[in-house]
Amino acid sequence: MTTLSRQLPDFYEYNENETQFYLRQMRYPEDMALVHKWMHEPHVIPQWQLNKSELELQVYYEKALADDHHRILIVGVNGQDVGYTEIYEGKRDRLGRYYDGDDTDLGWHLLFGEKSAFGQGYLRPVMRMLGFYIFEHAPSTKIVGEPDHTVKPYAVVVEELCYEAQRLIPMPEKTAKLYYCFKDKFYQKFGGYLTASQQAQKKIQPVAQTEAML
Predict the structure, then answer these.
(1) In which pathway does it act (predicted)?
(2) How many Cα neighbours within 13 Å face the side chain of 202?
(3) Which 8-state DSSP code applies to residue 169?
(4) Tell me, what's the pLDDT at 168?
(5) Which residue in 75, 92, 101, 187 has the most C-beta neighbors within 10 A?
(6) Does the pLDDT of residue 209 top 80, yes or no?
(7) Closest CA to 138 of 28, 2, 1, 37
(8) Contact 145, 161 (CB under 8 A)
(9) Start-end of H helices in 95-182
(10) Alpha-carbon distance 104 to 142, whole Å?
(11) Of 205 and 62, which is predicted with more confidence?
């Protein structure tokens, strides 16, 4: 049986303000050196706690990639891999122990591993991309999130992007704040971004086809 998360495409492109963003399925073991580097970055370690040896990470990702309740994807900007996301099924994830969710709920975790991506204004477009990626390819009516409630800047961004705070959740490693992002409200606010992205891709596609014929 194909699970909800496994129905999502292996590649997704999104354009905003003349910048190309994309999601692609993590390639194992080809991407391990890149992920290993990111997991040892000082800004990543506190939240992800995966600053393990290469062998330990290989074992971790062999298990993770075999788990059919989530997808592991690389985030790219203008052709460069800059980050990493895990998209998971809320009820089948450990989060399912802490909230009464729907079978179609999906959530995500995100990190920017490349320091060159800092301060470029990429967070909001990438979060919009994740929303469209999920809502366009899954029957989900809401996205869930459970970030550490002490990360104050994050709270400002998610509320701006239609994520509504629900309540605090006491988890072993953190006190998380549960968020819901409802599909109808997300499209009411950001549907125009998707239309603009699709139009931008149509303009690019004929050029690519012409080059392929030469």
Answers:
(1) Siderophore biosynthesis
(2) 6
(3) E
(4) 97
(5) 75
(6) no
(7) 2
(8) no
(9) 123-137, 152-160
(10) 8
(11) 62
Is it the case that residue 207 has pLDDT exceeding 60? no
User: Strands 142-145, 106-112: parallel, antiparallel or unpaired by DSSP?
Assistant: parallel
Q: Is the pLDDT of residue 42 over 50?
A: yes
Q: Is 70 helix (H, G, I), strand (E, B) or coil?
A: strand
Q: What is the spatial distance between Cα 130 and Cα 23, in angstroms, rounded to a whole number?
A: 9
Strand pairing of 11-16 and 174-182?
Answer: unpaired
- How would you class 178 by CB atoms within 10 Å of its CB: exposed for 0-12, middle for 13-18, buried for 19 or more? buried
- Interacting residues of 118 by C-beta distance below 8 A, sequence separation 6+: 112
The token duo for 142 is 């809401």
Please give the model's pTM, rounded to 2 decimal places: 0.92
Tokens at 10, concatenated: 């292996």
Q: For position 212, what pLDDT does the model report?
A: 38
Exposure of 110 by Cβ count < 10 A (0-12 exposed, 13-18 middle, 19+ buried)?
middle
- Give residue 194's identity as a one-letter amino acid code: L
Cis ω for the linkage preceding 42 (within 30 of 0): no
Answer whether 190's CB lies under 8 Å from 14's CB.
no
CATH class of the domain whose range is 9-209: alpha beta
Nearest to 23 by CA among 141, 114, 93, 110: 110
Radius of gyration of the CA atoms of the chain, in A:
17
CA neighbours closer than 13 Å in the CB half-sphere of residue 74 = 19
